[in-house]
Amino acid sequence: MMYGTMWLFDMKFDTRIFTLSYVLVNYTRQSCINYFNFAIRDLLHYMAAQKRIRTFLLLNESERDNRLLSTSSFKEIDKIDENSIQRRSQVVCNLKQAQWEKVKCSYVSFD
């Protein structure tokens, strides 16, 4: 390609001009190819993220989870009880067993 261009423009074959032209053309070609690939990749990532965000924003508001609601075993009292003010606060947990969900990893290899 370089030889054809030099022949077309009746350029004298000189190694300095040929080397400089070859380096500039290849540098430009590599930059264009790399940045074009980066642009396509980033555009695809953007489109996927935009779709996920749009789906999330269009969801209806979820119902409150009943497990998050706290309940009290005490009844409301109209009068203030002086003894209850002086008692120390306490938290009672009636769980017999508590644990994290078990996670199963499949198809994991460490090389």
Structure description:
The protein has helices at 2-8, 15-58, 82-86. The chain has a domain at 1-59. 0% of the residues are buried. The chain contains three helices and no strands. The chain is mostly helical and 111 residues long.
Q: Please mark out the parts with pLDDT under 50 across 5 or more consecutive residues, or reply none.
A: none
The number of helices is 3
Q: Give a short account of the largest sheet.
A: none
Binned strand content = under 5%
- Give the radius of gyration: 36 Å
The beta-strand count equals 0
Q: Structural class of the secondary structure composition?
A: mainly alpha
**Which oligomeric state applies?**
single chain
How many angstroms does the end-to-end distance come to? 45 Å
Mean pLDDT: 77
What level of helicity do the residues show?
Answer: 40-55%
Shape: rod-shaped
H-E string = HHH
SSE topology:
Layout: H1 2-8, H2 15-58, H3 82-86
Question: What labels describe this entry?
Answer:
111 residues, mainly alpha
Outline of the structure:
The chain is mainly α. Helices cover 50% and strands 0% of the residues. The longest helix is centred in the N-terminal third of the chain and has 44 residues, at 15-58.
